[in-house]
User: What shape does this take?
Amino acid sequence: MPRHQGRSCASNWRRGWRIGAITPAPPIVIKRKAAHTGHHGGAWKVAYADFVTAMMALSIVLWLMNSSKQIQEAVGGYFKDPTGTGNKPGSYSSG
Assistant: This one.
């Protein structure tokens, strides 16, 4: 019987055996440099979130400045009385 003992050469090659050899091939060891230790560089996310929030606020202010007087008064009325209970009888802000 041949040296590969009845198995195909491809299966021996996958198992790490050299074709025609009696002992297995030595394992291949890949040494890599150690990765960075610790977690660094997350501060940019906080700065970016602050920037995006500021841009959103700016776009809302610009949109309100360009809107009609009726919309401006409606938005201003919301900020004067956010719950909307100012005109109801018995509320604190009613006259």
